[in-house]
Amino acid sequence: MRLSRAVDLWMGELARSGRTASTRFSYERYLFKLVEHVERAKPDADVREVTVNDCRSFLDKWIGRAPSTVGSIHSALSGLFSWLYLEGEIEGNPMLRIARPRRLRPEDVDVVTVTLAEVEKMLLACEGWQEFLCLSVLAYTGTRRDSASRLRWRDVDLVEGTMRFHEKYGKVAVKPMPDELLEILRAAVESTEVSCKPDDYVIPNRRLATVRRSERSNKVIWETVLKVARRAGVKATAHALRRAFAVAFLTSHPGALESLQALMNHSRIDTTQVYLRALNRSLAMEAVRDLTWASGFKSNAVEAHTGFGPPCKSALFVARGVHRGVHQPSAAGLS
Question: Of the ranges 88-102, 106-120, 277-291, 319-333, which is most confident?
Fold first, then answer.
C-alpha cells in the first residue's frame, strides 16, 4: 500500500470514530508533508518501506516549534502507523522507538487568558445582536466554539432554561444556563432584529449567507471574538472565554469539580483539575502583595482582585437597552 493511500484510509477511520474535522484536517496536513518527505528519497513509497530514521528525520524538521505543534505531529505519525500495524499492513510500528516529546503541564503553558474586567469590556464593546449573542453564549456557558457555532434556537428551552449542545465525538449534552443568559436570550427573542426560527442559529452569521449549508464553520465564532476583542483593546480568543468561565465557576463554587466537569463536557476529571490547579496557584501567590522592605514604602493601593468572578450584570443592561452610554444591539451587527 502506498503511503499516501494509507493516509487517506486512516482519515476515513478517524471520521468514522468521531474525531473532529479540525483534528482530521491537522493530522492530514502533517501526514501529507511526511509523504512528500519520504517520497523525495523513495518515490511511490510503500508503507513497509518507511523506517524509524525516516520518521526521525521528518520530526527533526520541526525542532524549535511550539511543543503543542511537535506533539500533534508525533501523535499523527503514531496514530497512522499504529493503525497500519493493527491492519497487518506493516510488520512493526516505526514510531515505537521514538519517544514522545515532553510537554509542559497544561497549567504551565503560556495561553491567552482574560480577566473578569476584560470579559465585561468585551460584552460592553459589542455592536449588534450578532456580536452580543456570540460573546454571551461563550462567556456564560464556557462551550467550545464548534458547539457554539452549531447551536440553533430549537436547542434552546426558554421555559426550562436549558441548552442542548452538540459536543465533540458526536456527544449531545443538555445543560442549564445561567439566569442572566436566559434573560439575554429572551430579550433577543422579543426584539424584532433577531430571527429566532427553530432552524436559525442562536449566534447569527456575520453576514447574509449566499449558500445554505447544513452546518457552518466555527470560523464565524473565531472572527467575531477577535473583532470584538480588538475593539475593546483586549487580547482574547474563544477558548480564553472558556477558561474564564471555568475559573469564574470555581471561584463562585469552590470544590465543585464534578459540576464543572459536566458543564465543560470533559471525559476525564484530570482535565478539569487543570483549571483548579491554575486557580489555586494564582491565589497562593497573592500572599506576596504585602511584602515590604520598609514601612515607608507601603502604598494605599486597593486590594487587587483575583482576576475572575461571577459574570457581570452589565450584560443584562445591554440586552435590555437601558444601560447609559452603552451601544444598544441593532441590525447593524447583522451586516
Answer: 88-102
Whose cell is 480564553? That residue is 240
Q: Tell if the pTM clears 0.90, that is, is over it.
A: no
Please give the class, per CATH, of domain 116-287+302-334. Answer: mainly alpha
- How large is the C-alpha radius of gyration of the chain? 24
Is-same-fold flag (3-103; 116-287+302-334)? Answer: no
Q: What angle do CA 223, 168, 275 make, to 5 degrees?
A: 80
| 168-227 per-position pLDDT tens digit | 767 889 999 999 999 999 999 999 889 999 999 999 987 665 445 556 788 899 999 999
C-alpha–C-alpha distance, residues 137 and 139, integer Å? 6
CB neighbours (10 Å) of residue 251? 17
Please state whether 225 falls in left (phi above 0), alpha (psi between -120 and 50) or beta: alpha
Could you give the CA distance from residue 152 to residue 326 in angstroms, rounded to a whole number?
Answer: 27
Report the candidate in 277, 286, 333 with the shortest Cα–Cα distance to residue 305: 286
Beta strand 162-166 pairing with 156-157: antiparallel
Q: For residue 157, how many other CB atoms are within 10 A of its CB?
A: 14
Distance CA 176, CA 154 (A): 15
d(CA 241, CA 141): 9
Class of the domain covering 3-103: mainly alpha
How far, CA to CA in Å, does 190 sit from each of 54, 64, 154, 187? Answer: 62, 53, 16, 5
Nearest C-alpha neighbor of 194 from the set 304, 329, 67 = 329
* pLDDT single digits (tens) 132-151: 999 999 999 999 999 999 99
CA 302 to CA 218: how far, in whole Å? Answer: 41
Q: Name the strand (E) or helix (H) holding 173.
A: strand 172-176
Domain edges within the chain:
3-103, 116-287+302-334
Q: Would you state the pLDDT for residue 306? A: 43
**Run of H or E including 274:** helix 269-285
